[in-house]
Design a protein that fits this description.
Jelly Rolls, 4 helices
């Protein structure tokens, strides 16, 4: 196999970046580079941003907190993850996370098997150019194509208890 340096190292700031209303998706290691076994994205998350609670049916996720403080709910368990923490989000278990601090937080997400990372690029296209949240019906339809469903009944409780807002809101 003939590998060039670009395939062996990704430097800080490299990779395509898309925005999802309070959370970014910075593509680092694409599925094409790993034979679709895994992909890696980095998520910068603005303070007070809640990722919609959801469940994956096709992939597992492993997050590593680089900076900041994240609130995490996996099933019925809620905890705080700080720099150096690893968080396992298994498929078929509802989960969410939010920036629980006052500054931008950042985590690295390993998705395995790969493929789901393309959801983020498609979802970014659903955000209106003039700002505001996307149409949730379109988001849910897109999620369905990726084996993703949402647990929106968690949102009011999480917003109230942790003073966060759903991304795009």
């Amino acid at each position: 196999m003939n590998l060039d340096q670009k395939q062996l190292m990704v430097t800080q700031g490299e990779g395509r970046l898309v925005h999802l209303g309070g959370i970014g998706v910075h593509y680092k290691i694409p599925s094409a580079q790993t034979g679709a076994t895994f992909s890696i994205v980095e998520h910068p998350v603005e303070p007070g941003t809640l990722v919609p609670p959801h469940v994956h049916t096709r992939e597992d996720e492993l997050s590593f907190v680089v900076e900041g403080e994240f609130g995490v709910r996996i099933g019925e368990r809620v905890f705080t993850a700080t720099p150096g923490c690893y968080v396992v989000k298994p498929r078929n278990i509802p989960h969410t996370f939010w920036n629980a601090g006052k500054k931008r937080a950042r985590l690295v997400e390993i998705i395995f098997p790969a493929g789901f990372e393309q959801y983020f690029a498609e979802m970014a296209q659903l955000f209106p150019a003039n700002g505001g949240p996307p149409d949730f019906g379109e988001v849910a339809e897109l999620g369905g194509r990726y084996g993703l469903s949402f647990y929106m009944d968690w949102v009011p409780e999480l917003e109230k208890q942790y003073k966060v807002k759903l991304l795009g809101g």
